[in-house]
Amino acid sequence: MTVLIPLHDPSALDAAEAALRVGGAIVLPTDTVYGLAALPEFVDQLYALKGRPESVPIAVLVASTEQAQTLVRVPDPARRVADTLWPGPLTLVLETLDGQSTLGVRCPDHQFVRDLARRVGALSTTSANRHGEVTPPTAEDAAASLDGDVALVVDGGPCHGVASTVVDACDETLTILREGPISAEQVRAAALR
From CA 13, how far away is CA 132, in angstroms rounded? Predict the structure, then answer.
């Protein structure tokens, strides 16, 4: 049975950390939409709960640019963009440190999520909905839309945001892969700072 805890409950952060550390998946609010999160070593759960094809990558949420740099290479233009537009609704696709693949990384403008990432490390996170469907705006509906139970639902009230802007930031081109709350013009302006 899924446990639901209000975001402002003093034990919410501890409960989320405990659920993640034992391999659970959780639903949590972000600055955009409800997310479905797990530690990277348990990312398979996210694919199963969403019914998402394994060919579609899952991004990570981090607490800071410094935490992102433990996972990916951040070239100067991407660093300027991150320094200007993070925390916020912007996912940067960057090369992993080994140069073998890419990873979408986002630092959300949501204190709870950043605090959780500080405690447990980067969170593999995707929107809390069945693959290809709209993310429900409430915590309970987001959890109910998934194909199975999650360990914990953190209820932060309605989330009516739009999924983040996604930018390929591996080189200076800064290609917009998905339009979102942050415009291409804002990304380009940030890269020039």
Answer: 29
- Give me the phi and psi of 61, to 5 degrees please: -105, 135
Which pLDDT belongs to residue 18? 98
pLDDT averaged over consecutive 10-residue blocks of the chain (193 residues)? 92 98 98 97 97 95 97 97 98 97 98 98 97 95 96 96 96 94 96 90
Ordered structural domains, the chain, with CATH = 1-63+107-159 (3.90.870.10), 65-94+162-193 (no CATH)
Is residue 117 within 8 A of residue 124, CB to CB? The reply is: no
pTM over 0.70: yes
Q: Residue for token digits 């469907």?
A: 133
Query: How far is the C-alpha of 43 from the C-alpha of 54, rounded, in Å?
Result: 10
pLDDT at 1: 65
Per DSSP, the residues of 61-89 read E-SSHHHHTTTB---HHHHHHHHHH-SSS
In the numeric block, which tokens belong to residue 10? 């003093």
Q: How far apart are CA 55 and CA 92, in angstroms?
A: 19
Question: What is the distance between the alpha carbons of residues 64 and 163, in angstroms, rounded to a whole number?
Answer: 19
Are the C-beta atoms of 145 and 133 separated by less than 8 Å? yes
Q: What is the pLDDT of residue 2?
A: 82
Q: CA-CA distance, 119 to 115, in Å (whole number)?
A: 6
